[in-house]
Amino acid sequence: MVAVSDGPGSGRAPTAVGAPVGHPLLSLALTGMMDAVGAHSGAVYLRVGDEPVLDMAVMAGLPRSFAAPWERVGLSAPVPVADAARERRLVWVGGEEDMARSYPRIAVVLPYPFALAALPVATESKVYGAVFVTWPGSHPPELSDGERQELESACERLGRRLERAAAENRPVLPETDPLDTGPIGAVADTLGPIEAARMVARLPYGLCSLDLNGRVTFANAAATGLLGVAASRLLGTQLWASVPWLNDPMYEERHRAALLSQEATSFVALRPPSDWLSFRLYPSTTGISLRISRARGVSETGPARPARGDAPTRLVSMSQALSLAGALTETVSVQDVVRLVATEIAPAVGSQALALLGTRVGRLRVLGHHGYPDPQVVERCEGMPLTSPTPGAHVLAHGVPAFFDSVQQLERLYPARHATPDGFAAWAYLPLIASGRPVGACVLAYSEPHAFSTHERAVLTSLAGLIAQALDRALLYDTKHQLAHGLQAALLPPSLPPLPGIEATARYLPATRGMEIGGDFYDLVPSRPLPAAVIGDVQGHNVTAAGLMGQIRTAVRAYTTVGQEPAEVMRSTNRLLIDLGAELFASCLYLRLDPGHGRAVMARAGHPPPLLRRPDGRVRVLDLAGGPLLGIDGEATYATTEVGLSPGSVLALYTDGLIEAPGTDIEDAVTALGRRLGESGDRPLEEVADGLVGYHAAAEERIDDVALLLLRAHEGP
């Protein structure tokens, strides 16, 4: 907690450094803004140090379990509070359709009518976290100006208080969630408690009062009779936990729907052997009134009768399972899967560490791990044969899950584990089966002995199926990614050869669509008597384009080495491309460099014009004469242009991926590129190159490859 006074003396006499004082800052700020705008629930998230992570610090109006999938979210996560904090803006979701359109993962887990606003908690210099508040589905589809102003002002005040607390080194301590935000529009003192109890007792139907967590706080005699459970067993417990035949996720979901939407909901349930009961839930901001009566005319197509046996505590709620399934579909690489299992699945099932194992040529592979104090304990499994007497190898080889409640149980079956302890006391070894074949194994480790119930084993096995599907896709992606990058690296020069009188550097960025491999290429040819440079772009982003690019680059080198002039090099390459019958076109820019005489001779085939930065900083777009794209016309000719290249001049050769963007005029993009070159051209050439491709290098998605070749002329042989 941090106490912050807004009175006249605020800030003049700070408390001792490091001493948390006063009232619960976050809880009061949250409930204050909820009261101001009539919201019925909300939460405050805080940044975790400098990590790009938001942690739920306090929640009001609803049980925290409702937001379990989002108690800890990354700043890049597709959720409103992350968007609000990352983009420093108010995020408004006006209802079910708006949620399904903007945040489909949340809509799957919470398909109820409610409105939501998320705002950043920030100052000009720092983002401290974010807030969200929700309203019932009856809220208008738009946020009013008054509500917006109240929320923004409250978040600004909270941001300043957190900034002041941080400056004075006063920590914000954990606070209790204020579930009861107080009745809105309640009528008090209208009926004495004794007479109220008598009236409720006379009613022919059952009445229960549930708090926001679903716990029974009152039940009349009719309710206990209809449920068949004594009041002593009901009070203080959740209804679906105390009544075995109500232990179904569907019934708990109706409770969640009522609280989030603040609208009355209902369902029918079968009380074994043949009695159908009707349940009607009337929610408010303080809890739920539940009316129970006998249902009439209910067909036998209602909810299935629960299996006999104990009603287990649900290990993973329906909302968490849906959220985890959605998150797993968004993983791309193997490390994405490891990270998701570590941050969302392992905590949900109470595990403290995990490892993902795979196979390669009959041996174990460690795909990733998290939570082990000594990583070598896991990494020593790398390369073990699948025939080795270890539980991981056995699960991978046979595809059967194994659960060990204690160290003794594990070592009794695998004595070799006694010599390699990992510091944990219970384990679940889960085979990961996708499309009927094993793709790996997931090891969940527990710090204390852990008895795995039948229900828990079923849940873990089901989660393993979800993980297996994600891991199978990730392994394919990683293989494709390594293949693409290996092929691209083989086709492009591993390094640029030194040229007399020329300093050179290059950059290549693959497109993020398709196979992340394309037809952009560049090269320097140290031929005699004069060296040459070339840059080009073969149409497409696939293996065909990459292969053709390699052939063109080889042809240009061969024609240069035998002494052909620039125009003839272009004509010969054009004829080769047509003879290959590839049905792909290519742009190309070829230069014969003569730094000793301060010049360069260029030939162009439909390629973007190069930029020339003179030593005085002025930049010129070299709109060279040329010919059509290579591969179109076998009789095409290519004119050449001589350009001055005095010492200190910089030539920028690039492909269209560097200048093309949706909605951007090409001429404007070339002008902007020239301006950046003019401003940075005096810097070291590596820095200039990084600056010119900086935006594209940081972009998460590139629709085209980007290639850049910079040449700077200097004095000397």
Bulk shape:
elongated
Query: What structural class should be given to the helix and strand makeup?
Result: alpha+beta
Number of helices: 20
Percent helix among the residues? Answer: 25-40%
Low-pLDDT runs of 5+ residues are 1-17, 181-191, 297-313
Radius of gyration, Cα only, in angstroms? Answer: 34 Å
- Summed over residues and divided by their number, the pLDDT gives a mean of 82
Strand content: 15-25%
With strands numbered from the N-terminus, the spatial order across the biggest sheet is 3-2-1-6-5-4
What kind of sheet is the major sheet? Answer: 6 strands, antiparallel
Number of DSSP strand runs? 26
Query: End-to-end span in angstroms?
Result: 71 Å
Based on the model shown, name its key terms.
717 residues; alpha+beta; five-stranded antiparallel sheet; 20 helices; elongated; disordered N terminus
Protein described:
Helices cover 34% and strands 24% of the residues. It is of the alpha+beta class. The strands form five sheets. The protein has a six-stranded antiparallel beta sheet. A five-stranded antiparallel beta sheet has the order 8-7-11-10-9. Strands 13-12-16-15-14 form a five-stranded antiparallel beta sheet. It contains 20 helices and 26 strands.
Task: Write a brief caption for the model.
The protein is an alpha+beta fold and 717 residues long.
